[in-house]
């Protein structure tokens, strides 16, 4: 219990009614009664890495990402330090609406990859909820350098969360096969 | 044997006399007879993660890096996807002169951290040797997005190795605790 107590301390400054409570160590009620298309939904948060890969593929399809071999996706999830899912439940089924994962050396550095919120749930602050939880989890693990690579259209989103570009002239660089 | 044969295929375009040969699977003769301060030394390469932490600390001291708790350094190495050392031998002792390590999801993405060459051995192309081996190893593992964060003074070094900054406006971003 103590882990989650620490983890969720001061967890959110959102305007919605929030209600962080333990269902079990995997599924946490994060946002109570988020309004979406006239419906009120409870949004849950999970760090369980037992993810339905087809649900994840569907989520990635919804934002137009290029499909990747599921075997490689599974390998990537299995070797990520942290995977976070946002979902709501209907008829006892989990509906995946958000995802992020993190690689790390478990000590100093972490890099966040594959941050995605389903288009129907964008613009409701869930991206911030997701990222706040990622950062809290990494800080709980005493990891102090948190990095990511942001597409131009989301640089300002991450800036608002406290991420900075090119600190002291440090540049993110990429190498791709020719 | 096949792994190393693939790994070292076309391994170097250096001007030095190179002689890649197997001593065992951990210590590979990489550069034969590198001239250093009037001495000729054989430079070895290792991906063994059983690193003497005091030797590594000494190497990091030599380039003026802030000291880090050895326990956290060990944790970081243990959870790195790849650690690479460059060293020469004298009196059966390994002398660590280069180091790099990589975090990865073992599938799509990798991030290179802590690249260091001892000042006495800088300007001899060993940084390129080290990075070439890092890239070859990652490509062998079919990892296609290789990233790093470069201090301003080494951006051009990495550019010469084929790394690019801000491709399509993608920005490397950082979050640090306040």
UniProtKB/TrEMBL annotation, chains A, B:
Keywords: Acyltransferase, Plastid, Transferase. PROSITE patterns: GNAT. GO terms for molecular function: N-acetyltransferase activity. Pfam families: Acetyltransf_10 (PF13673). The keyword Acyltransferase applies. Gene3D superfamilies: 3.40.630.30. Residues 49-178 form the N-acetyltransferase domain. InterPro entries: Acyl_CoA_acyltransferase (IPR016181), GNAT_dom (IPR000182), NSI-like (IPR045039). CDD domains: NAT_SF (cd04301). GO terms for cellular component: cytoplasm. This is GCN5-like N-acetyltransferase. The gene is ycf52.
